[in-house]
Amino acid sequence: MRVSQCVVCKSFPCRDIKRDCYIVPGISLPPDLISIALVSEAAPERRADYYYSKGDALFQRTTVAAFNKAGVNVASVKDIVDLGVYLTTAVKCGKTGYGIQAETIRECSLLLEKELALFPRLKAILLMGDVAIRAFNHVALRLEGKRTTPGGSTYRIRTQKYFFRGIRVFPSYLQAGASFFIEKSKQRMIAEDIAAAMSLASAR
Q: By C-alpha distance, which of 97, 157, 164, 161 is closest to 130?
């Protein structure tokens, strides 16, 4: 299965995005391989910095660092995917400013819903940052009539357990991009959340 053939934005209705940065993972993989989905914020400004890009991609570098801090010995995104982790963004286009409008998050959550539905064996979903958390809550509202995670600071809500249709949902901090290297406390919490998700996925 090639994800980018299954999940496509055709109309591009959002106004605060860079359409030329639009990207959905183009990797081919067996759906049953994936037990964890990691959802970060938005596509990078440079396609060369995306998760699955070749070379020294920024998203790959910071995500590999996050997994290593979690005690998972990996050297590339391929190593992470081989462990059953699928990496994507909540918003498929690049940002035009620091924030992302609420309507854009809601609109892109329609694509995220289709994307996550491709993987029938998910055990955990890592929501990396506020945009990913809000996008997934839109998915949960449509499918279940209620949010999966409550409002409030990530620091406060991440200590609780949340589930969506039997899948453990982890609200966490953004690991993709240069900001990952700035705050050591957030690095620690990201590592804790990744480690917990990996442990859950490996359990029989």
A: 157
Selected residue with higher pLDDT from 4 and 98 = 4
Written as one string, the DSSP assignment of 35-73 is -EEEEEEE--SSGGGSTT-SSS-HHHHHHHHHHHHTT--
Domain ranges of the chain: 3-202
Closest CA to 92 of 143, 17, 28, 169: 17
120: left (phi over 0), alpha (psi -120 to 50) or beta: alpha
Give the pair of three-digit tokens for residue 147: 């949010």
Size (the chain), residues: 204
Single-letter amino acid, residue 104: T
Q: Which class is domain 3-202?
A: alpha beta
Percent of the chain at pLDDT exceeding 90: 87
Q: 19 Cβ partners below 8 Å, 6+ apart? A: 12, 93
Q: What is the pLDDT of residues 52-98, one digit of tens each?
A: 999 889 999 999 999 999 999 999 999 999 999 999 999 999 998 88
pLDDT digits (tens, 9 = 90+) for 74-83: 999 999 999 9
Q: CA dihedral in degrees (2, 129, 45, 29; nearest 10)?
A: -10
